[in-house]
From TrEMBL:
Taxon lineage: Bacteria, Bacillati, Actinomycetota, Actinomycetes, Micrococcales
Spans traversing the lipid bilayer: none
InterPro entries hit by this protein: His_Pase_superF_clade-1 (IPR013078), His_PPase_superfam (IPR029033), PGM_Phosphatase (IPR050275)
Gene3D superfamilies: Phosphoglycerate mutase-like
Protein name: Histidine phosphatase family protein
Amino acid sequence: MPRSSVHLLRHGEVHNPDHVLYGRLPNFHLSELGRQMAERAAGYFAERARAGANFAYLAASPLTRAQETARPTAQALGLDVVTDERLLEALNHFEGLANIRGQLRDPRHWPYLLNPFRPSWGEPYRSQVRRMMAAVGDARRIAVGLAGDGAEAVLVGHQLPIWVTRRAAESRSLWHDPRRRQCTLTSVTTLEFDGDRLLTVRYAEPSADLLPGAANLPGA
């Protein structure tokens, strides 16, 4: 069976001076630091390509920050960016609000906090995994169809959907503490396959040295 790899790339830092949980809101652009992170991610993939990696497919969430993160990688690899709605950020009741910790003390929001295991404030974790894994499966098949054994694909998306997809791939509970997600800005979570069988999960942080001081809202 042909082997393949799908890299889940989180977007870079967003210009968000009001600290809004922006979710699926439009027109949240990368900050200057975020653009540096996107270039760093492109360099990471370009280095892999120079070492023999065979990149054949690139897709991104339709949200501005994901599209802007994808562009340098598209240029570095000579690929077009395919927009895939399944890579969207998770729906969230608190979308558009600032000072989320303070909002949690407002009784109007309490009905949305009843079940953190689902979670009750947004799109169910299982729903996120289903759509992400469907996108991963299609990306893997398209890449193999274009480039054969060893083909690789890059999907640019958002922290929570990437993180719960990784947890599902590793057979871990989807419920988690948002403060403990291992999915930093422009991090790369790689799923390696032999045919349809997932072999392993790898993780890398091309922008590790740029992270100190970066804005990084959980769920953003």
